Amino acid sequence: MGKPAPAATAVIVHDLDHARAALAAAAAFDRPVTLVSAPGAAGSAGAAWFLKVVALAAADHPDAKWDAILDCANQPGHVLAALRQGAKAIRYTGTKATAAKLAAIAEQCGARLVRGRLKAYDLRGEADPGAACRSWIGGGG
Asked: For residue 93, which of 40, 74, 99, 137 sits 20 to 30 Å off, Cα-Cα?
């Protein structure tokens, strides 16, 4: 997995083209980017799909600095499934008590649980994801 600086710019990706556009812009501007799945994507597309999209995009842009967060909404079972699939950063919006338990499990798996709102540019509906990513990432997010 890539190793972004703490101030990585986040982009919500919905498919492989989005992920490739974000990583291409990250490489072009030498800026770290965080690829974020669509809200609740762990339940709709699945962890394996998201991890494969990220891996394929990263293989196309080996110079990009990146991280990836899979959104599991408020579903603890999706978090556990994502950990079994090898996800290293997982967003969970459920209760604090459950989040604390899931964070401990994630830590044992070498992963981290992400809470709260993310400032991210959503590529859904973008006619030109490459241009949108160049503007968002190049402009500082």
From this structure: 137
pTM score:
0.91
- 8 A C-beta contact, residue 46 and residue 82: no
| Span 92-113, pLDDT tens digits | 999 999 999 999 999 999 999 9
Start-end of H helices in 30-95: 41-44, 47-60, 76-85
CATH class of this structure's domain 9-138: alpha beta
Q: What percent of the chain has pLDDT over 90?
A: 89
Q: Are the C-beta atoms of residues 31 and 58 closer than 8 Å to each other? A: no
